[in-house]
Amino acid sequence: GVGSAFHFWLNGEYGGYSEDSRLPAEFDISNLAKEGQNCLKVLVFRWSKGTYFEDQDMWRMSGIFRSVNLQWLPDNYLLDFSIKTDLDEDLDFANVKLQAYAKNMDDACLEFKLYDDEQLIGECHGFDAEIGVVNPKLWSDEIPYLYRLELTLMDRSGAVFHKETKKIGIRKIAIEKGQLKINGKALLVRGVNKHEFTPEHGYVVSEEVMIKDIKLMKEHNFNAVRCSHYPNDSRWYEL
């Protein structure tokens, strides 16, 4: 969210550099931050080596155009996790498979829960685990149903280190004889290219504008969008 590159300093101490304008940049500032008020300074460059890789057909602007967040993490926390859903041939049973990683996996356990609205439908433990779902409610372009996933990282006594909640969909995508199908039904892709841009604010796109774009696309019966030519704001994918 900074184009096209930047250096930053915290409390007068150098913190780091990044030049990918469309992906998150994370820095550990534990040794730079202090209790109370802190001073963050950012020096943004309009052009950098990364500019050559981001040379697509769009307006060329610079500056900070996405959110800047301060994140506190405990001594042990989830580094990353992935979810894969497998449906059987009849689409009446699904396995929701989890693979997760923590900073310290030896002295921790992970609780994995799956909810349908507020109803708990499955629970297990482990960094490599799966939950079975009978007669799952399937995600589609017309009815994008989502389940709620809850991960809780704990020590051996049950004290909580870290908690994450995400929404996931269960679906089966295939190409059969040249035909794209979702959950066994043929799908005709009707889509549009989309840039993160507004006439008033350039690259800064609010959630209100995102929702307006989604409603406009649905009114025109679009079921797909190409995020040209870069990763969009993470909130867009959630919406």
TrEMBL record:
<dbReference type="GO" id="GO:0005990">
    <property type="term" value="P:lactose catabolic process"/>
</dbReference>
<dbReference type="InterPro" id="IPR006101">
    <property type="entry name" value="Glyco_hydro_2"/>
</dbReference>
<dbReference type="InterPro" id="IPR017853">
    <property type="entry name" value="GH"/>
</dbReference>
<keyword id="KW-0326">Glycosidase</keyword>
<comment type="similarity">
    <text>Belongs to the glycosyl hydrolase 2 family.</text>
</comment>
<dbReference type="Pfam" id="PF00703">
    <property type="entry name" value="Glyco_hydro_2"/>
</dbReference>
<feature type="domain" description="Glycoside hydrolase family 2 catalytic">
    <location>
        <begin position="173"/>
        <end position="239"/>
    </location>
</feature>
<protein>
    <recommendedName>
        <fullName>beta-galactosidase</fullName>
        <ecNumber>3.2.1.23</ecNumber>
    </recommendedName>
</protein>
<dbReference type="Pfam" id="PF02837">
    <property type="entry name" value="Glyco_hydro_2_N"/>
</dbReference>
<keyword id="KW-0378">Hydrolase</keyword>
<dbReference type="InterPro" id="IPR006102">
    <property type="entry name" value="Ig-like_GH2"/>
</dbReference>
<dbReference type="InterPro" id="IPR006104">
    <property type="entry name" value="Glyco_hydro_2_N"/>
</dbReference>
<feature type="domain" description="Glycosyl hydrolases family 2 sugar binding">
    <location>
        <begin position="1"/>
        <end position="74"/>
    </location>
</feature>
<dbReference type="Pfam" id="PF02836">
    <property type="entry name" value="Glyco_hydro_2_C"/>
</dbReference>
<dbReference type="InterPro" id="IPR036156">
    <property type="entry name" value="Beta-gal/glucu_dom_sf"/>
</dbReference>
<feature type="domain" description="Glycoside hydrolase family 2 immunoglobulin-like beta-sandwich">
    <location>
        <begin position="77"/>
        <end position="171"/>
    </location>
</feature>
<dbReference type="InterPro" id="IPR006103">
    <property type="entry name" value="Glyco_hydro_2_cat"/>
</dbReference>
<dbReference type="GO" id="GO:0009341">
    <property type="term" value="C:beta-galactosidase complex"/>
</dbReference>
<dbReference type="InterPro" id="IPR050347">
    <property type="entry name" value="Bact_Beta-galactosidase"/>
</dbReference>
<dbReference type="InterPro" id="IPR008979">
    <property type="entry name" value="Galactose-bd-like_sf"/>
</dbReference>
<dbReference type="InterPro" id="IPR013783">
    <property type="entry name" value="Ig-like_fold"/>
</dbReference>
<dbReference type="GO" id="GO:0004565">
    <property type="term" value="F:beta-galactosidase activity"/>
</dbReference>
